[in-house]
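Postdoc handover notes: sequence design on the structure in folder B. Input tokens:
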């Protein structure tokens, strides 16, 4: 089963992608994570993408399409993929359709996570993650059980994303509405969309996604 998690920044795509990865033995592919790794490693891609990401704008389609194609090919034998943060434009969605078809794969479901913009700014401004395993936390909603120690791996270093501040979040939301939201129509025409209420708590959203996937026969 291959699925796309679609929704604005802060909707909880990364959190749910991780849960799905564990519960369904699928592989999460996040273009945001890949690009941040490229920036941290100082690669040519990282140099091209870094400034664009700091402004909250979208990295050019050809760069992210190449990244995703390489990753899908590298993990060819897996049960399926959860795409988190890709596609983000119609051109990316069309490229994904082509590249899955060429590899005799298909996209089974597109889960749209619905959240309102004001809630997103608050959610994003408080989030941070374990530097070792990437487990996500939030100043208001999910602090580590033992202060300063990651629940998942025991790590003691935490990081905040550079683009998780209000001004950049507003620009990321603008990019979402202008360039990514049209994908909901694109995939609705393919009969693949199921919407879930991204404002609910993590476990409830997880249940809703599970139901949406069962109805895909997956
Ligand atoms: P994310 O972690 O998904 O919120 O992505 C962080 C940033 O990486 C975005 O604000 C974009 O600048 C860039 N990015 C991630 N995925 C894509 C994509 N599919 N297309 C264009 N830019 C992307």
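Designed sequence:
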């Amino acid at each position: 089963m291959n699925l796309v998690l679609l929704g604005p920044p802060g909707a909880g795509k990364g959190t749910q992608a991780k849960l799905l990865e564990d519960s369904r033995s699928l592989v999460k592919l996040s273009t945001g994570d890949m690009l941040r790794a490229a920036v941290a490693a100082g690669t040519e891609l990282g140099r091209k993408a870094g400034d664009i990401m700091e402004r909250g704008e979208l990295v050019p389609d050809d760069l992210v399409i190449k990244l995703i194609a390489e990753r899908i090919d590298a993990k060819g034998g897996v049960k399926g993929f959860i795409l988190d943060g890709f596609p983000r434009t119609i051109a990316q969605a069309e490229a994904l359709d082509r590249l899955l078809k060429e590899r005799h794969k298909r996209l089974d479901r597109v889960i749209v996570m619905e959240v309102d913009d004001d809630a997103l700014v608050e959610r994003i401004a408080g989030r941070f993650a374990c530097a070792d395993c990437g487990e996500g936390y939030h100043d208001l909603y999910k602090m580590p059980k033992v202060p300063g120690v990651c629940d998942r791996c025991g790590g003691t270093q935490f990081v905040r994303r550079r683009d998780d501040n209000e001004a950049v979040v507003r620009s990321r939301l603008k990019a979402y509405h202008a360039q990514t939201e049209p994908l909901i129509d694109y995939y609705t025409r393919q009969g693949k969309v199921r919407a879930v209420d991204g404002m609910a708590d993590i476990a409830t959203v997880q249940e809703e996604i599970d139901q949406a996937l069962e109805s895909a026969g997956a």
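Context for whoever picks this up: Residues 9, 31-32, 35, 52-53, 56-59, 64, 85-86, 88, 92, 163, 172 surround adenosine monophosphate (CB under 6 Å). Don't rerun without checking with the PI first.
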